[in-house]
Amino acid sequence: MSGFATLIARELRLALRQAGDSLTVVAFFILVTVLFPLGVGPEPAMLARIAPGVVWVGALLAAMLSMERLFQSDYEDGALELLVAAPYPLELAVLAKAAAHWLTTGLPLIVAAPLMGLFLNLDAAGYGTLLLALALGTPALSLIGAVGAALTLGARRGGALLSLLVLPLFVPILIFGVSAVEAALTGLSARPHLLVLGGLTLAALALAPWPAAAAVRQAVE
Q1: Which of 26, 42, 196, 208 could pair covalently with 143 via S-S, beta carbons 3.0-4.6 A apart?
Q2: In contact, 215 and 146? CB cutoff 8 Å
Q3: Residues in CB range of 219: below 8 A, 6 or more apart
Q4: pLDDT of 64-75, one tens digit each?
């Protein structure tokens, strides 16, 4: 656990040196959300109806902006070879990178989500469920993104390939995240949808580090 904490602290220090990346992600999230009313019109009822989907799609696309860089900088400067040769499991390093990605990307998106919900006229009954759904679902985005980033490491046009790999895997998270908020808005129980989101994140937590670590080893070799 001390090694895991050290790895997370390292990743967070690197992220703080490039704080502009996190600000870019949040700015992209805000811009995507703002563009939807310009496309569909400013009618409050229409905006309220599409608000959960818009917020989730914006958060998903924004999170993808920084996924390609999960391993790229360490790959380019040789630090990834040291992580592979380190005495602790490489899967632990993958988890640390995914955790740091969520802390610097997913968490700011969750903080910005209520403001975007207010902009889209989201009903007050949906705010709590929206935040809870994002908190349960966005860690899975980082974990799945780590697998995609490892598989495309060193590839030409890795960003486009990464999108093709991970976007289909994001669809269940998007569906249940939006469904949870819509259930809360219609007076139904959001619990089943939230439980599925939590299950998806736990499954990603258990499964994602292994293929990601194997792909990183292959890229380094």
Answers
A1: 208
A2: no
A3: 71, 75, 80, 150, 153, 154
A4: 888 878 888 777
